[in-house]
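Standup notes
- DV: blocked on the single-chain target, sequence here:
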Amino acid sequence: MKVNIEVDCSPEEMRRFMGLPDVSDVNKTYVDGVVNAMKGTSNVDQLQTIAKNIAPMGEMGLRFFQQIMDAAASGASGKPKSSD
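- DV (later): unblocked, structure below
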């Protein structure tokens, strides 16, 4: 038996329903910091270095995030991702 439940609510409503903390102020501060850090960069290498330094958990965090995105993309397409 398979049951699907669809919930139509905003991210804010879901956050409150799940009892998660409101991190919108922290997120805004983080995003503003990233934007300010990336202003004045002139090449891709500089952007990559900045991204590695300011990302949560550094390069390990970026790799983890990339793995999550790859898994989500392969799940959406229905095709398993090949190993690198």
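- Follow-up: The chain has four helices and no strands.
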